[in-house]
Specification:
There is one protein chain. The chain is 63% helix and 0% strand. It has 51 residues and is mostly helical.
Length: 51
């Protein structure tokens, strides 16, 4: 009933998985940056200069 699924070109699978993971991470970072409030963004922008 069920046939074994064989991915004949398995070497093309890794770049696709890498692209999807990169795109998801990039999307999450952009979303968090857009949802950040004014006070939080001011605090984050001053962080490198604070001791």
């Amino acid at each position: 009933m069920f046939q074994r699924v064989e991915y004949t070109e398995w070497h093309t699978l890794f770049p696709k998985i890498g692209f999807v993971l990169f795109f998801l991470a990039f999307g999450i970072i952009v979303w968090k940056a857009l949802k950040m409030g004014k006070a939080e963004s001011c605090k984050a922008s001053r962080m490198p200069l604070d001791d």
